[in-house]
Amino acid sequence: MKPLKLTPAAGGWLLADWGDGKAWLRFGKDKRNRLTRITELHTLNPSSDSIRRIPLKRIHAAATMRGAALVQLMLAKGFDEEPPLNMFTNRAPKGLELSRRHKLKRPTGKRLDDSFYKDVAHAYQSAVAFGLNPRKAIVDDTGAADATVAGWVMKARKRNFLPPAEPGKVTA
Question: Residue 106 and residue 2: Cα distance in Å, rounded?
Fold first, then answer.
């Protein structure tokens, strides 16, 4: 899997480069004034195939996960500015490459608190951002059984650290 590079720009825009293509995505604010929603998409020379290949979930997870504070700060800083006129040209600034995935460590005790479930959510979102199956990645990282990891993910969702599940889809 090719690395994902993110370049924040003025006006809440983010250039995503996933190796096989590039797209500009604009983020909007949610009810709590956090930059969490993709509201617009711009790509050069679009075709139905190239639009389908845009890894929207991966980009969204990478920009909104707990470890993406630098990207979020840079987006928030220029949120109310007008984007430059030449922003959508082929020439793009150097992006921030996702350097390493957050790996969950197996808990030592039996009592699990909110901080552990926040870490579960962070590991889940990080795996999505790297294009991995999130539950399998957490199983591989911790050595825990798949059913145990499924329980951790379910409790992280119940505590609102992950969005509600949609059958057959990875929601991070």
Answer: 28
Amino acid at 143: G
Which residues are CB-neighbours of 168 under 8 A, at least 6 positions away?
Answer: none
Domain count, the chain: 2
Amino acid identity, position 68 = A
User: Which structural domain range is residue 11 located in?
Assistant: 5-97
The Cα–Cα gap between 9 and 83 comes to: 7
What SS3 state is found at 156?
helix
* Rounded Cα–Cα distance for residues 124 and 118 (Å): 10
The secondary structure element, H or E, covering residue 114 is: helix 114-129
Q: What is the pTM of this model?
A: 0.54
Whether residue 122 sits in one domain with residue 151? yes
What whole-number distance in Å separates Cα of residue 15 and Cα of residue 88? 9
Domain boundary among 72, 97, 122: 97
- Could you report the per-residue pLDDT of 78-107, keeping only the tens digit for each? 666 676 666 666 555 554 455 567 788 888
Give the distance from CA 95 to its chain's centroid: 15
Q: Are residues 91 and 116 in the same domain?
A: no
Q: Which two tokens stand for residue 127?
A: 């795996």
